[in-house]
Amino acid sequence: MSVSGSAATPQASGADYADGLSGGPDWWQVTGLTAGDTLNVRAGPGTSHAVVGALANGDRARNLGCRMNGETRWCQIEVPGGQPFTGWAAGRYLREGSAPGSGNSGAANEAAGMIPCALAPDQPMTTCKFRVSRGQSGTASVWVTLPAGGERYLDFRDGRLVGSDPGLSVQQEKTGDLNRVRIGGSERYELPDAVLYGG
Fold first, then answer.
1. Are 110 and 98 members of one domain?
2. pLDDT digits (tens, 9 = 90+) for 61-102
3. Which residues contact residue 49 at a Cβ distance below 8 angstroms, ignoring those fewer than 6 apart?
4. Which residues cross the membrane (predicted)?
5. Residue 47, Cβ density class (10 Å: 0-12 exposed, 13-18 middle, ≥19 buried)
6. CATH number, domain at 78?
7. 56, 105 in Cβ contact below 8 A?
8. Is 1 helix (H, G, I), strand (E, B) or coil?
């Protein structure tokens, strides 16, 4: 899922959003997304740049400054966690927030670990490193580190797999609290509910 410039969300008057190009708060909090949607974080300030991650309402990111691209304000952010990443997000979905772990549940929204994985149809399962950024109610962005290098992106909404990297088919089978995921007809991943929901 993506957030385009045509789906502006009305914002409360006087709210502290990313409305400046320099300065501003140390931390942003994502807000204003439609329920179940995510805010794409891109490699550069514009929708033509590759998606490097996604955030949900309530996620927090460090403010690295903003700039205009046409009529859209883009803010460079750093997302904390076990494997932090940096990118650009549309400023209209950011408001002043507090640092993760400073009296809020932000720190619990980030995690990293190992999950069972296989990259070929007949390959036995091995383990792959992952990192996750969680929103609410099973909304999670998961990045799995591939053994040969690079990462596979898995996008979950309400505990359901809704997408992966562009051009790849996705399939999910749930047994108890285990989510068996197939990507592109060959890759297999097993994610416990705890990866998506925390705990």
1. no
2. 889 988 888 888 899 999 876 667 899 999 889 988 777 765
3. 42, 43, 88
4. none
5. middle
6. 2.30.30.40
7. no
8. coil
